[in-house]
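Q: Structure tokens for this one, please.
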Amino acid sequence: MKLAYARGPPVAVFAGSWRCTSSPIDGVPIALGEPFGDCGVEVARLISIATTVRLAKQMGIKVYVSAELGEEGLDAAFAGGADGVLEELSFSRNEYVEGVKFVVLDGRDVADIVNTVRSLGERFRKPFDVLVATSYEFVPRFASLVDGVVITGGWVDVEVAPVEFIPEVGRCVHCGVDYLMYSGSLKRCIYCGRRLLRVVTATKTPRSRAVYRSVYKKFANITTLRFKIV
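A: Here is the predicted structure, written as tokens:
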């Protein structure tokens, strides 16, 4: 089914190329309203996860997820720039255990988290990093206080909608413009002259964390995209 990004944040992160015949590469930003590929509608959930992780990382904090998301959900999270999977870390919950690197605290109240961390430090006098397991909506509360968050829910709402035609889409990373080529084809940006990147492709990249990290680093600075119809 040919789909467009219909509702959500102004810029989302695509994930789920393995469920598409043609689409962006996982981790590529897509603009609200942009036709993005021939995919199953289930990619909306994957786009939601990837977008939530990216928005959280833009707050300047490390973001982890749980293996409870499942294999596809984890791949989507890494497409959004996730730093790791909780179950793969050396951690304990709500208490310090000898030898662990991370202590994961559950809570929504900043004062409770701060008091718990201080108490653990006074009692055990050992170094550890603090992660807060919380819903996305509460991430801004803790972003400047702890070493990272484990997102447990509150995924950004994303909707997709069917379209009749997928144009060739060329992106100028420098100008932040996506050219939707319904009537022609361009190779270079009309504003700066730089070569355009093809957004929608039939090429399948490996479902690999190394690939996701590479794509994330390439597009991490893109916060806005706009359309140019040609």
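A few notes: The chain has a mean pLDDT of 95. The chain has five helices and 16 strands.
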